[in-house]
Amino acid sequence: MNDKPAPMLTLCQLLHLKSVEPIVKESKILEFALLVDKFDCIQALKPAMDSMLGQITSSTPYSYDLIVSAFILDQPQHFRSSTKAFVLHSPDLDTTETPSEYPSLFREHLPEPFMSTSTLSEF
């Protein structure tokens, strides 16, 4: 296996209902979300991911990694709250950006309607 040991250990602990210490930090959430998706464990870990994202969003309301992770992990409530916080509070938000100028994380993992400038202009 070519996966990093720490996220893999966390994944195995969650799958076997073991306590996880320390919780996955915001800076590593996307890496962990991609690992969960890679091994098709999203449905099995849905409650754990809800709790994990809830702890992260309470300290960091939005980030590119958090938005993409919430989408990958099929957590619509966290996706909605983090994108709302991003739109309302991001000093870097420029609605004139074209989809090709968005962070590569968005282009790579989010669906096309999310990236559409026509969708943004409707708001």
Which terms would index this structure?
disordered C terminus, mainly alpha, 123 residues
What structural category characterises the helix and strand content? Answer: mainly alpha
Q: Strand content of the residues, in percent?
A: under 5%
* Tally of DSSP β-strands: 0
Radius of gyration: 15 Å
Order of helices and strands: HHHHHHHH
Mean pLDDT: 82
Tally of separate domains: 1
Unreliable parts? 119-123
Between the first and last Cα atoms, what is the distance in angstroms?
45 Å
Q: Biggest β-sheet: count, sense, barrel?
A: none
Shape: globular
3D architecture notes:
The chain is an all-alpha fold and 123 residues long. The protein has one domain (5-122). Helix content is 60%, strand content 0%. The chain is built from 8 helices and no strands. The protein has helices at residues 5-15, 29-38, 46-59, 64-72, 76-89, 104-109, 112-115, 117-122. Helix 2 (29-38) packs parallel to helix 4 (64-72) and helix 4 runs antiparallel to helix 5. The longest helix has 14 residues, at 46-59. The radius of gyration is 15 Å and the shape is globular. It starts with a helix and ends with a helix.
